[in-house]
Amino acid sequence: MTTSTADDRPGGLLAWQWSRYPSGHRNRKNLLAHALTAPVYLAGTVALVAGPFAGAPWLSLAGLAAMGGVMFIQGRTHRVEQGRPSPFRSPLDLVQRLFVEQWVTFPRYVLSGEFARAWRGEPAKAP
Description:
Blueprint: H1 13-20, H2 28-53, H3 57-77, H4 91-111, H5 114-120
């Protein structure tokens, strides 16, 4: 018999992150920070990868700086949420979770209507 903890990831990272996402994204300050910074993270990721192909190492550095700035801002605004993120297991876990959040989970949150419900203060739909 196994017991479940807050750090278990049933169904894998995507399912686990999605199941926990609404409880950690309800506060308007945090929602606004995510809405403004998620596109910056996406652009930073593209710049990081494109830099070597464009022969512009500065572009990769700028992309990395943008991604780091987004991580800092979102980390600060997560402090206002009642639902706190689970601790990161390792530096690799931090990178994986943030990448998946910015590229998959946050866009899904917006497109599903959950972002709008949270902004209006309505309860989240069950995952």
